[in-house]
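Entry:
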Amino acid sequence: MERWKLYAFAAALFAGLTSVVAKAGLKAVGPDLGLAVRTVFVFVFTLIAAVFLIDLSKAPATLQAAGWKTVSLLALSALTTTLSWICYYRAIHEGAVSYVSLVDKGSVLVTLALSVLLLGEPMTWRLVGGAALIVVGLLVLAGGK
């Protein structure tokens, strides 16, 4: 199996664990404070990982060579991540994490559309079929409860 697929499956596993553990952690605090605490830990753990995974002495030169556009796009990604997390934490605080998590995966449809339109990635029949199944799943969820 290709390495990126292993990373993708690991990401899905950890994302699933994240949602359930976060929901349990929100029992004693509100969603915004819970998210703030979580984010501090994410920051610390990410810095620790960076120490072991990248050559920090080259980071400033790499960022300078990459330019303002790259840094701006990463900053925009951070903003959209923050907005997503705020909404997600409020949703799991108020609703069933199993339901919220499934609806949240509808973001895959946005990702597919933008990856084709903005990044020029190919649209294959497998992607269209997978997207259609996701739409059907979202419609099933929207019709219930």
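The chain has a mean pLDDT of 92.
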